[in-house]
What we know:
The structure is a homodimer. Chain A is of the alpha/beta class. Chain A has twelve helices and 14 strands. Chain A starts with 5 loop residues before the first strand and ends in a 5-residue tail after the last helix.
Amino acid sequence: xxxxxxxxxxxxxxxxxxxxxxxxxxxxxxxxxxxxxxxxxxxxxxxxxxxxxxxxxxxxxxxxxxxxxxxxxxxxxxxxxxxxxxxxxxxxxxxxxxxxxxxxxxxxxxxxxxxxxxxxxxxxxxxxxxxxxxxxxxxxxxxxxxxxxxxxxxxxxxxxxxxxxxxxxxxxxxxxxxxxxxxxxxxxxxxxxxxxxxxxxxxxxxxxxxxxxxxxxxxxxxxxxxxxxxxxxxxxxxxxxxxxxxxxxxxxxxxxxxxxxxxxxxxxxxxxxxxxxxxxxxxxxxxxxxxxxxxxxxxxxxxxxxxxxxxxxxxxxxxxxxxxxxxxxxxxx
Amino acid sequence: xxxxxxxxxxxxxxxxxxxxxxxxxxxxxxxxxxxxxxxxxxxxxxxxxxxxxxxxxxxxxxxxxxxxxxxxxxxxxxxxxxxxxxxxxxxxxxxxxxxxxxxxxxxxxxxxxxxxxxxxxxxxxxxxxxxxxxxxxxxxxxxxxxxxxxxxxxxxxxxxxxxxxxxxxxxxxxxxxxxxxxxxxxxxxxxxxxxxxxxxxxxxxxxxxxxxxxxxxxxxxxxxxxxxxxxxxxxxxxxxxxxxxxxxxxxxxxxxxxxxxxxxxxxxxxxxxxxxxxxxxxxxxxxxxxxxxxxxxxxxxxxxxxxxxxxxxxxxxxxxxxxxxxxxxxxxx
Lengths: 333, 333
């Protein structure tokens, strides 16, 4: 195994976020399930956008947020995701590169526009996402550069990649290359509705060793094992994957490995503003700890710290240097 | 004089804001004058953007921010400004209409893209703007609809309109129509460097009665009369315009009319985050008071309240209902 060029390379749906504060009534009037991510087509995107209030825009996408968070901690990172060569695609490219992330995926020259997620943030800080995949639909195995994958200590993949038609092949190709190069593969389950769509395939990925590390929140874990009992689900998770990390919002996280279980508390916050990116940034901190060899408990604390930063402002990307934030809180970076 | 369809109609450069937190070093390295608005061409826009960190985007433009602020107070409003029919132009159109503003200016079908301002926000909250006018260059007198102008109690114009080549003709056309219909015309001086470019013309507008009300901050007032003495400048302002309103940041504002001078304190804030939009939102509150006939002191307090809201978060548009905010603070709306 040669030395790594990147600590973490992420692959995901490249999505531009259009965020607006709203009330519960808006969700009800539009038949949205609060807290979830719904895939929408162009017509529904137009209808939702038409009714939405004035918005704030910024680059997003689950795995991309995680990778930007890792870069903010000081990790060497790369991202693979499909945009269109349009104005929003150029904003997207700027933001991820400006964060210090290597981003070389060839933009689509035709077809749908760069993907957008219409994110409604209710007064309690909860976000409800409506995602038009757009150009993210066009990600194929051809976008996976074997050299870059093999040069990354960890390849990080999002469950959302099961939605676009060819991205799962890109996912499996990346995992195979990574493992052949002696690297690790991590997966986030993304969303409980996503788990519901692809439960069997996700379990196969875990049991067949396509992924070594799984991130899930409680809802995703319960959906995966179709049980409302946390301990039952956790026991199954430990049996199915080398390392499982379950986030539990204010209750902190649980790190489950063959060796045992570690519990890490959440990080205190002043005010919950917008949960968008909470899970993504938790994964950033945890993966940073992992690549720096801090051990699971410190990794969990780094994850909790990054999640706490991102939920205290609008948007899914850090607004401050996570490296400095970790230093100020006595955590190793 | 028929009854008004709009309380305030604003005309300005339609600009999409690209905001980033940065340090003083960035301004120095790029030869930027802190706190100002510099006009940049496409090449310099590309160079600045290339070096900027990951950004947050939202609709902006000085007069547009004021009009959105007025709508947030509950006023009936319209806006005239030129965008291109591109992705950013569509975001722009959505945001201003979603705020409740009538916006019917025909977008440019070719030529430069929708204008953008690259806004650097330093740790002290001060913003430094670099504006690529883009499609805003294409505003002409043909974009001024006489019926809409004549149906607006106040026409609000920004000094920045002196920069694009044909916008000043649109400005004068609008003022003439407004006055013929018995309406009032307000002008913001926009920026001390802008005043420096067009001092003589701005004074002609005031002395010739093309404008009835002028908004200025201290730097703009000093630039207009080329004096460092505030009282001297204020005396001249009173002689040159029916109503002059001078904002003085934390020192509040001074309202100067033929009848006398009123001083209104600033509104207390918890934390200064980003001054972008402070003057624009002050004008929104003041104009709202004016159209509701509150008297100058209450109008000044409404302006101070709106300015205080906008400087406590990133971006130049209100993030909360100004109507509700005013009610919570015992001000009439």
